Each structure stands twice: as structure tokens, then as C-alpha cells.
Amino acid sequence: MNRNFVFALILLAMLSRINAIPHQLHKRTTEFDACSNLPPETPVLDVTISPDPVVPESTDTFTISGTLKQDITDDFKLYIVFTDEHGNIISNDILDICKEVACPIKAGTLYQTTQDVYVPTLRGTSYIVVGIANGTESSDDVLACSVATA
């Protein structure tokens, strides 16, 4: 009886220890959603990253696509921005869309690109914002946007 009790105690201790260890096999994927500070009709870009989740101090590949409601002209750029929880920019890449493809890109046409982006050191809660905008402060000049927690 005493031997069974010791065996049960060891088994329970091992189970509680195993449940306390984070599950390394459960892969967390980065989910991009609509930017909350923009009108709800602003298109959401489809963004996938590789490797996922991002690896700080390395280069990740961002695959970005979306069908926009307005034409993309020479005035618009692709922004890939890393921010902290307060909205402070940690790092940003601003890419000239029209250097890659012929502009204008008509509304309703699928826009797709793949970009290699350096991922900075991220501390605390950080966000990845991917958007197409013309660089002004007005939210009216954002054609599409997506955001994810890094």
C-alpha cells in the first residue's frame, strides 16, 4: 500500500510539472486584422510572414496582397512598421510601390508583393502595421491597412 502511495505521489508531481511547462509544439501564428483607428470600410491587407512568428534581429519575408477600392498612384507607398505598445515607431520600411509595378494600379485590381524586412529587437508588447498610404496625417489617405501583435 505504501509503495502505491509513493508511486501515485510521484505520478501527480510529474503531471503537475509537465502541465506547468509551456507547450513548445503549439506554434503561434501571427494574425493580421483591420487597423482599429481607420473607418471600417478601409480594406484589410492579407499579410503572411515567414518565419512566423517573426524572429528579432533577422530578416523576415512579408507577403502582402489585397484588392483596393481606390487607385494606387505615384503618391502612395507601402509601409511596414514595428511599434511599441504606446505607438512609438521602433523601425519602419517605406517602399515605393510604383518602382516595382506600373502605376496607376486600378481599383479592384489585386495588388501583391513580397518584401524582405529586417525585424528589430522587440521588447514587451509590439505591433506590426502594414499599410498603403500617401504619407499624410489624414486617415482618409490610407488605402488599406493591417495590424498584428508581434
Strand content: 35-45%
Spans of at least 5 consecutive residues whose pLDDT stays below 50 are 4-9, 11-20
- What percentage of residues falls in helices of 4 or more residues? 10-25%
| Highest CATH level, the class | Mainly Beta
Distance from first to last alpha carbon: 52 Å
Tell the overall outline. globular
Structure commentary:
The chain is α+β, with helices and mostly antiparallel strands and 150 residues long. The chain has one domain (28-149): Immunoglobulin-like (Sandwich), CATH 2.60.40.770. Helix content is 15%, strand content 38%. It has 2 helices and 7 strands, in the order αββββαβββ.
List the helices and strands and how they pair.
Elements: H1 2-20, E1 46-50, E2 58-67, E3 77-84, E4 89-96, H2 97-100, E5 110-119, E6 126-133, E7 142-149
Antiparallel strand pairs: 1-2, 2-5, 3-4, 3-6, 6-7
Organism: Ambispora gerdemannii
Protein name: Phosphatidylglycerol/phosphatidylinositol transfer protein
Pfam families: E1_DerP2_DerF2
